[in-house]
Amino acid sequence: MKYDYLIVGSGLFGATFAYFAKKAGKNSLVIDKRPQLGGNVYCEQIEGINVHKYGAHIFHTNNKEVWDFVNSIVPFNRYTNSPVANYKGTLYNLPFNMNTFYQMWGVTTPAEAQAKIDEQKAFALTCLNGREPANLEEQALCLVGEDIFVKLIKEYTEKQWGRKCSELPAFIIKRLPVRYTYDNNYFNDLYQGIPIGGYNILINRLLEGIDCKTGIDFFDNLKNNWQNIAKKLVYCGPLDEFFQFSLGHLDWRTVTFKTRIEDTPNYQGNAVVNYTSYDKPYTRIIEHKHFEMFGNNIYNCPKTVVSEEYSVEYKYGMEQYYPINDNRNNTIAEQYKILASQQQNVLFGGRLAEYKYYDMAPIIEKVMNLWK
Ligand code: FAD
Ligand code: UDP
């Protein structure tokens, strides 16, 4: 039997694509080189807790259609991301809001905070002299000024990306809201949460009734004869690898995790604590149970699982996590995308194949639009 689609990668792109293909009466074979399905949203159960094995994932979107769709697959809980930043032992709320400004400067009203921030960013704005910020450092200094840049952005960002803030694109920092309200919600989106029971339920339901094989690398023996298996290919692996790196290697940032069980029901009181200074080598500590257990339920589970996150430069063979969308890499990626557009019956989709810093919801939105 020949499939309509061979889907390489069982992450959210591949799984959602397979789901809509099935609804449209098409059959697919989904393969993944990892030992399990789900891509980066896969969770491992430890001590009754869903541990986000490939990094903490919080679903958020403004798109009601996407939200209704994922909730039709599995209902989502009310988790609201409100990380805390630890700078040399002092805690600040994130994203940058009235709580942060109070902790930073003792200001208590929006007017006082606004005046303080205007004062803080005046120098940066003068230096720009009307032009747009050219990099992350300039962008951050124009958004929130010197003190917040130094204590909450600079070292965290440099740990995370392994590059100076002045060498990173400005858009990265625009992901973070700046608010003159006492609102610690990390996202501005209308909807957010975690699937009740965990992400594996979402993936398993998307892939229900679809042929899936794990532990299979597309490049081992399928690259040159996939046409014998399927009419079309949906490729969610790394863009450069598909073309044997012929135009050069794309850079990625990867993350390693040190995960341990702590013999306490509540280790840090929050799912996410960012360490924004160099004195800690990790960028953040995730306490996984707080994504799905709230209030006194936290204490019904006697242990907890925490992961320290270390951001490292990608080397061949590691997991590719974040595309590095600087000029050099974007230029190479664009050239690969021209080659990709010339491939017959191949769709390149998702974070790795599009070399794009995608969140989960835009991935689902993209697949939904493909099937409209
Ligand atoms: P992936 O999930 O990476 O899936 C790609 C799959 O392809 C993988 O399973 C891989 O094994 C497989 N594959 C690759 N090459 C081959 C091959 N040669 N043969 C077979 N299989 C192959 N988004 C949010 O909205 N909220 C968050 O809080 C959030 N946190 C994140 C934290 C981290 C650390 C990272 C890295 C990303 C985060 N994201 C978050 C983004 C989110 O992970 C992505 O948007 C989403 O997972 C992308 O889905 P995908 O299917 O494109 O890629
Ligand atoms: N960031 C920061 N301090 C923080 C958290 C984030 O400077 O405490 C910066 C950092 O450069 C990061 C960017 O904001 O890359 C975007 O943060 P976000 O949490 O959206 O990144 P994610 O980990 O979700 O990719």
Notes on the protein architecture:
With 372 residues, the protein is α/β, with parallel strands linked by helices. It has two domains: 185 residues, Rossmann fold, CATH 3.40.50; 92 residues, no CATH class. It is 31% helix and 21% strand. The chain has eleven helices and 16 strands. A seven-stranded mixed β-sheet has the order 7-6-12-13-14-11-15. A five-stranded parallel β-sheet has the order 9-2-1-10-16, with helices on one face. Helix 1 packs parallel to helix 11 and helix 4 packs antiparallel against helix 5. The model has no long low-confidence stretch (mean pLDDT 96). The structure holds flavin-adenine dinucleotide and uridine-5'-diphosphate. Flavin-adenine dinucleotide binds next to helix 1, strand 2, helix 8 and helix 11.
The helix count comes to 11
CATH hierarchy, class of the largest domain: Alpha Beta
- By CATH, the architecture of the largest domain is named 3-Layer(aba) Sandwich
CATH superfamily of the largest domain, called what?
Answer: NAD(P)-binding Rossmann-like Domain
Strand content: 15-25%
The figure for the number of domains is 2
Radius of gyration from the alpha-carbon trace, in angstroms: 22 Å
Arithmetic mean pLDDT:
96
Report the structural category.
Answer: alpha/beta
Ligands present: flavin-adenine dinucleotide, uridine-5'-diphosphate
Element string (H = helix, E = strand): EHEEEEHEEHHHHEHEHEHEEEEEHEH
- CATH topology (fold) name of the largest domain: Rossmann fold
Unreliable runs: none
List the strand order in the largest sheet. 7-6-12-13-14-11-15
Total strand count, please? 16
Span from first to last CA? 27 Å
